[in-house]
Amino acid sequence: MAAEAICALTNVLGTAPGHAHRAAASALGSLPIAIQGPKVRDEPIEDVPRVKWHEILEEKGGRKCDLPARIGRSLVVATGEENTLLVVKLACTEHSLQYMYREPAWMEHLYSGGYSFPVRFNIPMAIKMRGSYVFRLEDVPVRMSEGTALHPEVYAIGFIVHKDYFVYPNGHRTQRLLATEGFKEVMFRNAWLLGKLASLGIVHSAPIPLFHNRVQSDRRADHGLYEWPRRGRLDRWLHSCCYPNFGVTGIRDFEHLAALNGFSRKLHYYIGTQILSLLLVTGSYFRHKDRTRFGLDEEGNPVDARDLFDKQFLEDLTEGIFRRYYHGFVGRELSGEVPLDFDELSSRMIEEMGVDRHMEEILRVVDQEQMSDEGFTKFLGDRGYSEDQIRHFKKGVEDITIHTGPHLGGFNERISLPELIESVETMSALCIVGRYSTSNLA
């Protein structure tokens, strides 16, 4: 009876749109899967040692003659060992000690926990300074980027990584864009890794940052984060894909890892978030072939960059990503016909991701009132307004329309690419079905 019910609901996934599709996906995604995630130590942090930059270099083999490169809020130097880098990652203002501790704790767990992955996955090796994963850096050796809000105590963690750690699959610089076969290999491998980790009860909650509305993140209960089942507009999708938390070396940014235990109904949501992130980064790969082509042209018309896409390659990528994720999560290849139209999905992705129709964002009066004068000026400056232009705005007087896109959908509207969400629903549900069937119906 269970097998017949699953077959009927799977048939709905392939034939019915809208509410019926969503209901079937939700039902299949709720099938009980017992996954026992690991228990990663969450030790209390009491004494945080103070260390100097040269002490870290002396103890961990960094080259003392070079100033570190600054990548985001990380300080990076080559080590004495071939193909390795020493990374010191600084905390932001909002980061607590326990938040900073989470990443090296997961590194240590995956690095020495007896895990075996048949594909490349260069797990960073966390370092300790005076017996502590978290320390205070007394002297930051280089000037950080303007706007980087470091924690006043300058908390930091350190780790050793492969030299490819900062090579992103979709290349934020055109000259570093991976060739097509290289990109496909990296995306397929990371799809498998995300699926495999999820099968072990380890989920990465933010492969890329996803928002429905960034500007309202400070006053919304959901902090403006994107919840894909709600099908809302996706804020600044191309911007979110600039620095994905996976790359040539595999999964990264372990502070976003979480353990799931028992029959978790969140698993369907997490799987969908991961697959959605992979598909968005795939779309950004084509747009990054020419990063100058975005937004509105001189006449105010949406820039059309659809010619940057290779439809057949995109179709191969979307199907391959799903199949690799499924294999990693379920433990076997997907068999039978897939109730998905990858040809239609790729066509719609090109149509919506290739033309920047939705550029507008509205800074509402209520959001302006929560900003300081300095914060208000900085907000507009960060979005491309000159000092002369900013002077014409009066904080808290009226809503301000700004161009911050491209977005997928108009402000406070539905996503302009519902086919993407519907496909993610199907893919996530099929992963749950595959795992349930392997465990219960074999």
Any overview of this molecule?
The chain has helices at residues 2-15, 18-29, 53-60, 97-112, 180-199, 237-240, 267-287, 311-330, 342-353, 365-369, 373-382, 387-391, 418-440; strands spanning 34-36, 50-51, 69-71, 74-78, 84-90, 125-126, 135-137, 155-162, 202-204, 246-247, 250-251, 257-259, 261-263, 360-363, 400-403. By secondary structure, it is of the alpha+beta class. It has three domains: 50-162; 169-358 and 410-440, no CATH class; 360-403, no CATH class. Strands 2, 3, 4, 5, 6, 7 and 8 form a seven-stranded mixed beta sheet that branches. Strands 1-13 form a two-stranded antiparallel sheet. Helix 1 (2-15) packs antiparallel against helix 13, helix 2 packs parallel to helix 13 and helix 8 runs parallel beside helix 13.
Give me some keywords for this one:
442 residues; globular; 3 domains
What is the compact description of this entry?
The protein is α+β, with helices and mostly antiparallel strands. The chain contains 13 helices and 15 strands.
How far apart lie the N and C ends? Answer: 14 Å
Strand content: 5-15%
Share of helix, binned: 25-40%
Mean pLDDT: 91
Sequence stretches where pLDDT stays below 50 over 5 or more residues:
none
Give the overall silhouette: globular
What would you report as the Rg, rounded to the nearest angstrom? Answer: 23 Å
Question: Layout of SSEs?
Answer:
Blueprint: H1 2-15, H2 18-29, E1 34-36, E2 50-51, H3 53-60, E3 69-71, E4 74-78, E5 84-90, H4 97-112, E6 125-126, E7 135-137, E8 155-162, H5 180-199, E9 202-204, H6 237-240, E10 246-247, E11 250-251, E12 257-259, E13 261-263, H7 267-287, H8 311-330, H9 342-353, E14 360-363, H10 365-369, H11 373-382, H12 387-391, E15 400-403, H13 418-440
